[in-house]
Amino acid sequence: MGVAVQVEGLTKSFGSQNIWSDVTLTLPPGEISVLLGPSGTGKSVFLKSLVGLLKPEKGSIILSDADIVTCSEAKLYEIRRLFGVLFQDGALFGSMNLFDNVAFPLREHTKKSETEIRRIVLEKMDMVGLAGAEGKLPGEISGGMRKRAGLARALVLDPEIILFDEPDSGLDPVRVAYLNQLIVDLNAQIDATFLIVTHDIGTARTVPDNLGLLYRKHLAMFGPREQLLTSQEPVVQQFLNGRREGPIGMSEEKDVAQVEAEMAALAARGGDQHNGVGPKGATGGDAVPPQLEPSPGLPERRAVRRRQERVARMLHTFDPATAAAIRESLPPDLLARADAGVFASSPDVAGRHRSPDEPPTSVLPGPRGQW
Fold first, then answer.
1. 180 and 314 both lie in a single domain
2. Model's pTM, two decimal places?
3. How many domains does the chain have?
4. Which parts of the sequence belong to the ABC transporter domain (predicted)?
């Protein structure tokens, strides 16, 4: 099973330019999480901070009892082996064929024989649907195939955490759908912790167990998918419905007066004008869309049961709309346990005990009235 990643109070700036401040979240082990946000909000910077390529000024990133922000270079090198990363463009070496690209981490970081390396590489390439393509060069294949080759390379060291930096960028909707299914299938097979940075609303609605949104240099919200898909916060509604009306403008933020005028006009028209991007979910009363399931023949995702137990334990802390959506998704045995208060003092994802009245960590920092 993948490991939990606990981020506490993380702040990152470049010179005088603050990227984001006080980011706090926990990536639950083995679950798929998605991080959304307008362009320029520092989502890729967050990924680079997680693997120690960038050093935040404040905060901590804890996994396997080590803090990436403050640990030694030797320890950081060791921790990085827990990660696999799929970069936006695949980041393949153009002069190497796909086999050598995928084999590169094994040759650099292990002492495995070429026979063992060949077995592992072919296994991972088969997992991503590239069996038989190992002799091709990156320039000879499509963008979707390059993404899958980059994913195979991210898998060869059997990482416990896999980061996806906008895996859908440059792909048509059909290839995005195939890639989303591949991500779900891989999670079912390896049970690692996944974090996906994306702009794709369809991916955000159907793939993850958890959703987060970066906005105005803060983490606006992070929590179970039902929490964001039923949220009444204007910034969350706007982003997940792809609307113009709301706090997000062309340069990320809008003037407060403009936001108020837009929201008043929207209310006068009778509420949300759905843009046809999947079910309304977050704003219009439709059911939260179901998650993608693994392809036939693959095991069920073990993360689903773990996540259901976690949200059942937190059920009493959510607003009515979120609680209702979660209740619809829970199996009868967990729902009965939640109603009976069995989870009242169960340990949360961080391993500590949460009191019955303690809210989840998904909160909106700053003045809510501005949003």
1. no
2. 0.83
3. 3
4. 5-241
Does residue 152 sit in the same domain as residue 251?
no
Task: Give the per-residue pLDDT at 84.
Answer: 94
21 and 81 in a common domain: yes
Asked if 77 and 206 sit in the same domain, the reply is: yes
Mean pLDDT of each 10-residue bin along the chain, 371 residues long: 91 92 95 89 91 93 92 91 86 92 93 95 94 93 90 95 91 90 95 93 93 89 90 82 74 52 56 43 57 94 92 88 87 89 55 38 36 27
Does a structural domain hold residue 38?
yes
What is the DSSP-derived secondary structure letter of residue 166? S
Q: Check: CB of residue 311 under 8 Å from CB of residue 227.
A: no
Residue 49 inside a domain? The answer is yes
Residue 159 shares a structural domain with residue 23: yes
CA-to-CA dists, residue 134 to 41, 49, 98, 104, 116, angstroms: 37, 32, 5, 13, 16
> Domain check: are 332 and 201 in the same one?
no
**pLDDT value, residue 219:** 92
Q: Which long-range contacts (CB under 8 A, 24 or more apart) does 50-58 make?
A: 50/5, 50/7, 50/83, 50/163, 50/195, 51/80, 51/83, 51/85, 51/163, 52/76, 52/79, 52/80, 54/12, 56/10, 56/11, 56/12, 57/11, 57/12, 57/13, 58/9, 58/10, 58/11, 58/22
Range of the domain at 321: 303-339
